[in-house]
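lol ok so funny story. i was supposed to be doing the assay writeup but got distracted and ended up predicting the structure for this chain instead. priorities right. anyway since i did it might as well share w the group, maybe its usefull for someone
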Amino acid sequence: MMLIRFLFLVLISSIQSCPLKTVDIRQGCYCGIEIDGTNYIQCHSNRIYEMPQFTRSYIHEKLNISQNFIENLTNQSFEHLKVKRIYLETNPIRSIDKQTFNHHLLHYLEELYIETIVSHSLEFLCYGTWKKLRILKLTGFNINQFERCLENLDRLEKLTIEKSEINLVTYHIYKLPFLFELSLINNQLKELTFDFDSLSYSSSIRILNLTSNQLQTIPTDLNRRLPHLTTLDLSHNHFETIPTFNHQTTLNVNLTFNFINYIQIDQQHFFDLSFNPICTLERLTTTNIRLHNPTKLHCDCRLAFFLENNASMQSSYFDNETICSSPDKYQGVHLSDLTYEQLMDSCSIELPQHCKEISNFKELVIENSTECILT
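and the output, tada:
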């Protein structure tokens, strides 16, 4: 009974404080309150064709109007609204009035997630004082137009640019004083290029996410561009070799789902090389790599050193789901099911076409000539 009364009071409170001029719980937009007391405005997916109208109200935590059919944002779209987070993703937005956010909303707005389908410019960021915005996700924008407007976001901590036109990391991004995470994901980038002027500023970026692009290399002076970098995500790109980094501090580098088929590590950074077509490995003396689920692993004496001294060495690199691709007798077998003796019993002279021979193969055969059977 007490629970029902509580829920009733919560519903009444939500209705009284709701800034929507029209509340439609079944078809349109409605207000609600989470169990922890945070309030929100929710619009049903695939139902909304125009921005709802708002009245003056208390501050709400979020407005979610994603996955709808909004095409136009005007200077009245968010009039009177007080909200901390706005989700406007997966809408076919074609036009954004430059004054769309230039009112009292910016006294409260901390997060904005917005998507356009026409490579819209960033001009709308030039208007108003974005004194609270900490997180911004831009999808489908032309970052090369009005990129200077990004300088207005001097409290920004996280910036995501996705499926957009972007030619370089402009110094307008680079100089943001509190920006610690920059994500340039799924932008078809073939190279990472910085403004020449960027070296004039001390970047605060610690996390750089470049996943789902077409990168094959990374700038050799990345340590000068991003001296505070600790995490670099290069997954789902076109790398064929492990890039070299000059950072003094250890980087966590994600290189999963690339085209790396050979590993020779001479750096102290941590590399995740899982889901690459890795075939052979040089003898490794470091544990700063992860090799879960390589897709082309050749299981013979070349891998025996992983188990030579301690069976647990294998698990420090590979996981239990790692499967051998070749030779034929071990194809489809889990590496974790093979022993040192089994690996040493097979030393294929000829490797699969995509493989690169390890540098000490001849010495390996000679040293283990009594154990190793050449096939």
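Helices lie at 2-17, 171-174, 222-225, 312-317, 340-344, 361-367. Residues 1-14 have pLDDT under 50 and may be disordered.
back to the writeup now i swear
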